[in-house]
């Protein structure tokens, strides 16, 4: 089955599209051959409306209804183009995550989550079945609905007992640094997986950089501003004092907490005048340290980074330094691209995988600890809703999936064509 995954993160900078040919063998190995990926920039006016609707903004029901339609139409147009651009017109199913507008968390529990982009509009454009609304079923089962990427990480990075895949012993931490950073801890095949949001990834950095440059820059390209600054220890301590960082996993967060006013509010009483490269350096350190703190004391031997933050060398260097102080063993930091999945397209390939699993009646979350799922859900559930609501022409799977094997082309992953116009901001948000 060839599945096209569509995803847009909290930065709302682009619609990511990735096509994969997936085949499940009798041995429980799901073989995924990436067909290619690309990006389509959101129309400027629609992007501005989406950003204005994100927390802490208050919007009326009319705006929500209109955005649901407009986002669905744009996702449909992107999907229609991507079917030709990256899959040569050959796609069986489209998996559309939509655009997260609100993730409702109260204390340690997720109460609900809202992704806009009505699937009927997507299906009308792509002329294929569409699976969407992936998170709600997990939340209804007691989970956080996030991070959903743990199922990909578990199937892809789980090691055999021999360590023959090069991971050795210990754990692999699959880290996505988008608007929000999340991590999955993966050990041996079939071992329980832990996954949670560690805190801000690029979201606070992007807000600071845009404000400092009067909107000329949307992100800190190559960490250039951070490299010019000095970390303020007082400000960093005030930021790290947020109770979210000390809360146990599984947990999830988003712009509902780390919104555009967050940094100013946290620093108002300690460093109200902090600005310029020093502020950027401090926020970069916050991301690195909060991730490293989340992994402190764990037997992590390898971190596999993806997302826009994986292209920030200063952030990765600060992460390496923070990990060296907190984990008990030497820990390599590599990118997902080094292992076969592009850092900018991993989320879109995730939704292609989730679409395949849902179409075959398979759960879309990894097994976690204490008889729960990695998201905290009480039980495994099949994720998503089908549009139109007719039976798919594929039978349910006869057995579980144990491993995911990437079957890349001899020349590696085809990057796919890039659309014309301004390049999307590489510091993508998570698909929230």
From TrEMBL:
InterPro entries: Anhydro_N_Ac-Mur_kinase, ATPase_NBD
Region ranges (Disordered): 406-432
Catalytic activities: 1,6-anhydro-N-acetyl-beta-muramate + ATP + H2O = N-acetyl-D-muramate 6-phosphate + ADP + H(+)
Keywords noted in UniProt: ATP-binding, Carbohydrate metabolism, Kinase, Nucleotide-binding, Transferase
Pathway(s) the chain acts in: Amino-sugar metabolism; 1,6-anhydro-N-acetylmuramate degradation; Cell wall biogenesis; peptidoglycan recycling
Residues that coordinate or bind ATP: 9-16
Entry keyword annotation includes Cell cycle: no
Family matches, as Pfam families: AnmK
GO biological process: 1,6-anhydro-N-acetyl-beta-muramic acid catabolic process; amino sugar metabolic process; peptidoglycan turnover
EC number(s) reported in the record: 2.7.1.170
Gene3D superfamilies, alphabetized: 3.30.420.40
Any one GO MF annotation of this record: ATP binding
Family: Belongs to the anhydro-N-acetylmuramic acid kinase family.
Job of this protein: Catalyzes the specific phosphorylation of 1,6-anhydro-N-acetylmuramic acid (anhMurNAc) with the simultaneous cleavage of the 1,6-anhydro ring, generating MurNAc-6-P. Is required for the utilization of anhMurNAc either imported from the medium or derived from its own cell wall murein, and thus plays a role in cell wall recycling.
PANTHER family per UniProt: ANHYDRO-N-ACETYLMURAMIC ACID KINASE
NCBIfam families in the cross-refs: PRK09585.2-6
Protein name: Anhydro-N-acetylmuramic acid kinase
Organism: Cellulosimicrobium funkei
Gene: anmK
């Amino acid at each position: 089955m060839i599945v096209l995954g569509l995803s847009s993160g909290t930065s709302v900078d682009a619609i990511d599209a990735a096509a994969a040919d997936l085949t499940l063998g009798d041995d429980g190995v799901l073989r995924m051959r990436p067909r290619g990926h690309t990006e389509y920039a959101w129309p400027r006016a629609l992007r501005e409306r989406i950003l204005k609707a994100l927390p802490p903004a208050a919007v009326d029901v009319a705006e929500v209804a209109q955005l649901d339609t407009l986002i669905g139409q744009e996702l449909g147009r992107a999907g229609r183009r991507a079917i030709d651009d990256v899959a040569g017109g050959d796609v069986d199913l489209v998996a559309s995550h939509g655009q997260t507008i609100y993730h409702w968390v109260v204390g340690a529990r997720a109460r609900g989550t809202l992704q806009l982009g009505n699937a009927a509009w997507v299906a009308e454009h792509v002329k294929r079945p569409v699976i969407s609304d992936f998170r709600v079923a997990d939340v209804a089962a007691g989970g956080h609905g996030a991070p959903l990427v743990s199922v990909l990480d578990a199937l892809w990075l789980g090691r055999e007992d021999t360590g023959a895949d090069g991971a050795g012993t210990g754990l692999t931490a699959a880290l996505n640094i988008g608007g929000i950073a999340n991590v999955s801890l993966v050990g041996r095949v079939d071992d329980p997986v832990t996954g949670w949001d560690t805190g801000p990834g690029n979201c606070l950095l992007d807000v600071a950089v845009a404000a400092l440059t009067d909107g000329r820059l949307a992100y800190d390209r190559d960490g250039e501003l951070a490299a010019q600054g000095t970390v303020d220890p007082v400000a960093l301590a005030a930021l790290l004092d947020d109770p979210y960082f000390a809360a146990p996993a599984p947990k999830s967060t988003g712009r509902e907490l780390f919104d555009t006013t967050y940094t100013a509010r946290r620093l108002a009483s300690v460093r109200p005048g902090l600005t310029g490269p020093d502020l950027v350096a401090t926020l970069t350190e916050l991301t690195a340290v909060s991730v490293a703190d989340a992994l402190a004391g764990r037997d992590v031997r390898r971190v596999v980074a993806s997302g826009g933050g994986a292209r920030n060398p200063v952030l990765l260097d600060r992460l390496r330094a923070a990990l060296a102080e907190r984990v008990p063993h030497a820990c390599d930091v590599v990118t997902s691209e080094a292992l076969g999945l592009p850092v900018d397209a991993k989320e879109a390939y995730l939704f292609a995988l989730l679409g395949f699993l849902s179409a075959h009646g398979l759960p879309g979350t990894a097994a976690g600890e204490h008889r729960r799922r990695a998201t905290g859900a009480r039980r495994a559930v099949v994720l998503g809703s089908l549009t139109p609501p007719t039976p798919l022409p594929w039978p349910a799977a006869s057995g579980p999936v144990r491993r995911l094997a990437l079957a890349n082309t001899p020349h590696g992953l085809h990057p796919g064509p890039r659309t014309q116009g301004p390049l999307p901001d590489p510091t993508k948000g998570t698909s929230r």
